[in-house]
Amino acid sequence: MRFPTSYEPWRNLYLLQVEGKVNGLHFAARCYLKSIMGNVEAVILGGQNRLARQSETIWMNGSLSCDFSKRRGDIQFSSYNWNCFSVDDIRNPFCQRNISSVAVFSIPANSFKSGCKYIFRLQVSRDGNPNVSSRKVQGITVIDHKILQVTIECVRNCRNDFFTPSAKIHLTSRCSNCGGELVRYKWYIDGQLLVTSRDLRMYIRSASKGIRIKLIVFSKYGIYGRKVKNLVRNTGPRGGLCSVYPRQGYEAITPFYPCCQNFVSLNGPKEYWYFAGSVLLGSCVDCNCEVYLPVTSSIKVLVCDVAWACRTTWIKVKINPLRSIPNNIHGLLDNGLIDRYLQTIQSSASHITKAESGIILTRNLTNIPFQSRSSLARLANLTLTLSHRLYFVGQQKESLLTMLVKIINDNFEQINKNEEETFIMQKPFDNLRQACREVYEIIERLCKMSPRPPWSVYSHYYRAFSTGKLDQSLVEKLVDETKKLGNDETNIPWIIWLNSTWEMERLYRHLNYHRGILSDMGGQRKALPSEVAMDVQCFNTFPKKIVRVLTSDKIHMVFFGQAVLKEVLGTDEGRVCLKLVSIKLKLNWWYPIYKKPSTLVLSVRIFQREDNFTVHIPLNRSQIHTKTFITYDPELATENRNSSRSISSRVSPRSILLSTAEIKNCLREGTLQTHQDIRMYRLVLMEHTLLAVHFTTSTHKLQVVLRTKKKPSFREISDSKCTIPALSTNTTLLLRNNCRKADRAYIALRVYANSSISQTDNTPIENGPARYAFVFQIRSCDTWWYSSSGLDNQKWSHYGCYPTMDLSVEKGIRCTCTILGTYTNYLHYLPGVELPVGVFNVAKLNVIVILFYVTIFSFILLWILWLYVYRNRLPSKTILFPKFELDDESTGELHNVLISLRTGGRINAGTTASVHLSFHGQSQPVRHITIMQDPEHIILKSNSTLYIWVRTRDIRIPTTIMVSHNNAGRFPKWFLRRIELTDIQTGKTQVFLARQWVEKRTLLLSSSLIYSQGDVRMFDRWKNRFIMSFEMLWINWSLWQPVTGSWRESVKYPRMSRAKRICEFISKLLINFTICVVFFGVTTSENLNLNRSTFLQYKDIIILTMLCSFVNLMLQIMFDLVNYRFG
């Protein structure tokens, strides 16, 4: 309202009156409007305190003071009230009351005293209402030396020194006396240095009630200036409730009246923004606004204060959908129901598929002067709906969409006349901004598909575009010239191109969005400058869940768990801060695009109080994950700097775009004529990189092998389960090089068959030939390798980060890192090299070699069998005691008794002493048997059996035996395994199990183990029997025991039989042969061809020697442990 009422009773109250006469009858209508005016704000350039040099002119600038009830281009205040006072210099004539009434004035040099402080007050009042005023104070301290006059200006989210959490803060610096001098910047947040660029962008999600920002600016001559700005946290509206009446109704017919009350905020007034899904319906400051809804289950309400601090709430509703399209849609305009009309055609547009229907539905839109933000949102949504519903692209669809974009641009211009052009950057318009950008992309694609006008028109258009002189009048002039060049049928596409490109340019100017359509007109674009975006997020307590942080420029996302914080900080308690620095570098690259380094760099810092990062931090027990949404190439990436959503699901950062020269140069195409045809390609895959093979064409089902190091063999190709479906246009294969060196990657393919290549008929392919096309895509994640020895040793390294195995990168490139530091990633395409496929010889059996081995192994088997039958006896000796019965005391029958004395097989199990045996029966006399030995020629050796044959009447079964020796010789101690007492006449045998060493003491043996002839019994437990057999048969495993060696050559078991020793020797040969077979694998035609040049490599000999030696050593250690345990 630019016609304010000055009288107090009617202040901000307006009367709208309509009068008319119909058929002689007079009618009139009145409407009273009360305007809620914004506040006024006084601003003094330079902040609350600043320094000034005595010998320089001091400028006082209050021109940035504004009245929010007026437009920015209007005169804000008719008078500015300046006052000054100083405690240090009271009588100074230049520091008095009412020293000026203009916005900007100056104080001559040398007017103030050095070292004194002067306080200036600026008070501004609204014209016509002096009760609405604002005051600002600035203190100036006068010094002798020169300083830089630096100010901190608010760009976003810092209005009135308030900032909203969970939103980006953007501050910029300005120096009034720097001239063209090159200066450096240092920004400090709460005393900590964060960034050294001119602008400060940060994203704070958790902070205290305020933050202190200090800026220091240095010149190359040592002159500096500094400025401090304190920002107070704005919590936004709180409390309050929202409701709606009625709670149920019909789509686009029923008016709904939302009502929000009792919200409290630090910055008034409050405004309520209503949404249906992502579409803005309107805004209101009270409960008297009506909205018409689509089919939805809730109304989203955004409660915002004057500083754009907002809070979200929802109101549940029930909407019944329209059963049919209303007949009299255009009659709604006659009744002034514009919002209902827009919602009705929006609901109707979701059911049409023909461009003719869309033109009829929207024919009255050009007659409506749209000028609200809600109408802009509805028009953008209507444009997107029609662009998706109208499937086929034609002149009618292009004309319809161009008309809608023109209406959107007109709506933008009407809004910009009454509001700031940056309104669309505020939070309530995030979805509107995204919708407008999608509209821009749609009209951009239409412009690319439309044919260009003749050169005379096109050159004139492009010249005006390049010089910035393109406007509506010029476009209309070019349209008239185009109409004269041909008939209507040929002119229409050219006219559509002119109108659509002009409307696209207008929309770009409103959005400040990247053009894209004019990039191929021959003009060189300016290189994008390097950009830095920094985000600082602090947690008062350690987060328990996974932390996900998106950088403010919407390029990177970082997510990690609590384990990363604990490993970096060494604790899981206290305050935690996370700092992300996203940098877009400026590279003047002239090499091929696929060799261009990345321009996107991300640095991650984790700290508690101060960021003292100097080198990267290895993560040994945790990982940090990053995700990049756009690529290194700004020409091929879509700029989404201010979007609340990083990348639309329909935007692919670097997907397969066959129209680009990069993909065309790297695309590999080929054909397969017969079923035996094979194609093979190769490229070099760098360390820790990921290879993605994108198949864009496949007329037949293909069988594919993808591997590194060696070329795929025919067997691998035939056995491969990896296939490419027929008629496929988007199939991806992944292969990652996990090695720390570069390696070759191979891909081989053929037409799918159930049989091997050699068994497949070499016949033409049905419906052939089979065509295919694919491209190699390389993905890599790198880290910056910090070095304390100097900047020259710092470089990018492939170690520490690796790309994840994602089939598609449409939603970003993901990296997993084991280093906390600075990261980047690469995404480009490489051409593959086609390889010739060699002919492999078929493996055939050699009959002579087979007969030789059969003969040798048959002879060895027969030899072992003969040795087992005839030479498998342990050493033994029999002693007969003649006339033993003469000393009998009993008078019974004379029996033959056979006593077997068995020693063990352990080391020194034999004895050099004479052995004494005493037999004690229950009712029998005691009989003694002494085995005399010469210590130099012993009979009882280890692992031997001594048989004693006596005839006696005194020894009967059962009995007990007492064993002792005379301790003669060097090794009298011996190991007794068992004693067997056999009565030949009765056929009974009594077994005495000793299994112990016989030392100086006497060993008394008794046994209840008595069995008759023909009985079969198992002595002792199975474990002890197994251990004894194991010792006897396998103790010589790791020693080289030749077949022809003496059977007394074993050191530990000198009494092992030759048959057992030969079995061990053959077993060792078989085990070693098995190891060799497993190492070399199955012999095939492929490995015969690969290894035909060398018989055996020295590396294989070394590896086999180490394997066999290791196995022998392990078994020998195990045998020694068994011998030690049970020996």
UniProtKB/TrEMBL annotation:
It is a multi-pass membrane protein. It is found in: Membrane. The chain crosses the membrane at residues 847-869, 1062-1081, 1101-1122. SUPFAM superfamilies: Lipase/lipooxygenase domain (PLAT/LH2 domain) (SSF49723). GO terms for cellular component: plasma membrane. Residues 1-633 form the REJ domain. Gene3D superfamilies: PLAT/LH2 domain (2.60.60.20). Residues 895-1012 form the PLAT domain. PROSITE patterns: PLAT, REJ. Pfam families: PLAT, REJ. Belongs to the polycystin family. This is Uncharacterized protein, isoform C. It comes from Drosophila erecta (Fruit fly).
